[in-house]
Design brief:
Elements: H1 3-13, H2 19-26, H3 47-52, E1 60-62, E2 69-71, H4 86-89, H5 92-104, H6 121-142, E3 158-159, E4 167-169, E5 183-184, H7 189-204, E6 206-208, E7 214-216, H8 222-231, H9 239-242, H10 247-257, H11 281-300, E8 318-327, E9 335-348, E10 359-369, E11 372-380, E12 388-397, H12 408-411, E13 416-424, E14 428-435, E15 442-443, H13 447-452, E16 466-467, E17 480-490, H14 491-494, H15 511-514, E18 537-538, E19 545-546, H16 550-555, E20 560-569
Parallel strand pairs: 2-10, 9-20, 15-16
Antiparallel strand pairs: 1-4, 3-5, 6-7, 8-11, 9-10, 11-14, 12-13, 12-17, 17-20, 18-19
């Protein structure tokens, strides 16, 4: 293991050392200005897990004192109204897929070149977390809450929401401390300046590389550069200007250690651990702030246009004639169902370097949904030579907090991916049926199967993907209305060169959120396309204006279709 990797392992797990102590102790040539004295967060590299053996989320459980550990919302009732979303934040596979995403896409690797080769890694960092935020907002709207509001990240700003995780690590019995309410940010002036620098460079549409070159942000690589420096990874184009730590990692470090006083850093909060950070409501507020940076960048990008640009929206000669969904248990189309399922699971307590015959028993309520089938009718004219189409499926809440219809400009940020797949098109009509369980968003394992054969830290990509039980948002008892959107594009253009989809993978990972191991990302269009930019302008009496809503959008693009879907929770 290389010297840098050993040093970084020390940086992470010397939890009683301060940041300055760690930099002095490693002596590995990492030159940083003196930073605030606090622990670093965990976002560094995969090898530390192989060597030290950090427990995965199934080995973290509430301090309930009960023989069967409950995951049913009762343990965290003292966390106030935010406990309403316990089923999302405490879902074992939600937390597992988070750590495995970061292990699949580490910020540093121990290889001769010292570089990362994961394709479009910075863009994936943005897109993965954008989807998490959109899903969480959908849960909040379903229960009558406001969408996530970004934290203020400046000296003296308050993190108002406290959080008590009420749990410990199964192997070490380490108990995560609570974070009191109304904790202030202190000693973060350096990072406030960094924030201002990044925003200024986005506004100027130029980044500055370490060799002094100006790097334009207006092409498709811009979002990738931003993701690498905002997180930040070793691919950061200028660690002196944009920080070795990165805005994202620094924020996790500040929040995860902000309850330590007087320089005593023996306590580490859940925001410092990839297995636990998604449990904390502040995770979503912090990532909304990070996502605001990407949103600012995208607001400068030329809108995707029907006929011009690198990827025009129109596919002439191809149209989506109809779309609908039908649940297996429903007689009505476009009515979907979610529910809680009670189950008990026994899990072995083990780590990579510690083995035990003990088990933990969980008694949990878990959100599930009735599987459903997409029915999509596509028509291809004889003038179209391409035989393959990419089918892109998105969903978003139709109404905001006060029951008003979202404008398309606002709704683009609320759309989350549901699926993306390639089909063969015949001349004339092609009817596509696809089961929700086949989604390329999903981690293709049920929790029960995961327990029988969990992914290892040596193959983290096998744990990378959205939990299949959470494919649908909860909805509510009255029935929450969502917009379901489908777009078809030319797969012969979309697919990168030399992509080998015939190669037999060792496991099925989410291609949408995780990519494909050792290959190009399977879609050359921007992630989130067509909702990665603001809507295009249309000419109307009185002057051009932005497309107003989803209905107007699909009326101008025959290769798209939208319908309303109701999700009812019982």
């Amino acid at each position: 293991m290389g010297l840098i990797i050993k040093a970084l392992i020390f940086l992470i797990f010397c939890t009683t050392c301060t940041f300055s102590d760690k930099i002095d102790s490693t002596k590995d040539g990492l030159q940083q200005e003196e930073a605030t004295r606090r622990p670093l967060p965990w976002w560094l590299m995969m090898d530390r897990y192989k060597t030290i053996g950090i427990p995965n989320p199934t080995q973290l459980f509430p301090n309930s004192g009960k023989a069967c550990i409950p995951i049913d919302g009762t343990v965290g009732e003292d966390n106030g109204q935010e406990n309403a979303f316990w089923y999302f934040r405490e879902d074992l596979l939600v937390n597992a897929q988070h750590i495995f995403w970061h292990l699949t896409h580490p910020i540093m690797l121990d290889n001769p070149n010292g570089t990362l080769t994961n394709d479009r890694r910075g863009e994936l960092f943005y897109y993965f977390h954008r989807n998490v935020l959109a899903r969480y907002d959908a849960e909040r709207l379903a229960k009558g809450f406001n969408r996530v509001v970004a934290l203020r990240y400046e000296e003296g700003a308050i993190v108002g929401q406290g959080y008590d995780p009420h749990f410990q690590e199964g192997t070490t019995e380490f108990t995560y401390p609570p974070r009191p309410s109304n904790m202030p940010f202190i000693n973060i002036t350096r990072f406030t300046r960094l924030w201002q620098t990044v925003y200024a460079d986005i506004n100027n549409r130029m980044l500055i590389a370490r060799d002094g070159r100006f790097v334009a942000l207006d092409d498709l690589k811009g979002i990738d550069y931003l993701g690498e420096l905002i997180e930040a990874s070793i691919n950061n184009i200028n660690e002196d200007r944009y920080s070795f730590e990165g805005i994202h990692n620094a924020g996790h470090g500040h929040i995860g250690s902000m309850f330590n006083e007087g320089g005593n850093f023996t306590a580490r909060g859940v925001m410092l651990n990839p297995s636990t950070s998604m449990r904390d409501p502040v995770f979503y507020q912090w990532h909304k702030l990070v996502d605001d940076i990407f949103y600012r960048h995208h607001s400068y990008m030329a809108p995707n246009h029907p006929t011009v640009g690198q990827f025009p929206l129109l596919w002439q000669g191809v149209s989506v004639e109809s779309i609908s969904v039908r649940a297996a248990s429903s007689e009505s189309p476009n009515l979907l169902q979610t529910f809680f399922k009670n189950l008990t699971i026994s899990i072995p307590i083990k780590q990579d370097i510690f083995m035990s015959n003990e088990t933990i028993e969980y008694c949990m309520k878990r959100l599930e949904y009735d599987e459903f089938t997409y029915n999509i009718t596509i028509e291809k004219q004889p003038s179209v030579n391409s035989e393959k189409a990419t089918v892109r499926v998105f969903m978003a809440p139709r109404f905001n907090e006060v029951g008003q219809r979202f404008s398309l400009d606002e709704q683009t940020r609320q759309f989350f991916a549901m699926d993306s797949f390639v089909v063969h098109l015949n001349y004339g009509k092609t009817v596509v049926t696809r089961n929700s369980s086949s989604s390329n968003l999903n981690l293709n394992w049920k929790l029960e199967n995961w327990m029988d054969s969990p992914p290892s830290y040596e193959q983290p990509e096998c744990g990378c993907g959205w939990p299949s039980n959470l494919l649908l948002p909860t909805g509510n008892a009255q029935g929450m209305v969502f917009d379901l959107f489908v777009m078809v594009t030319n797969a012969e253009i979309d697919t990168p060169e030399n992509l080998n989809l015939m190669q037999e993978p060792q496991c099925k990972m989410s291609t949408i959120l995780c990519g494909i191991k050792d290959q190009k990302y399977p879609d050359i269009r921007p992630m989130g396309y067509p909702f990665d930019t603001k809507p295009f302008q249309v000419s109307v009496p009185g002057g051009p204006r932005m497309v107003a809503n989803l209905e107007e959008y699909v009326s101008l693009l025959p290769n798209t279709k939208a319908t309303q879907v109701t999700i009812r929770h019982s």
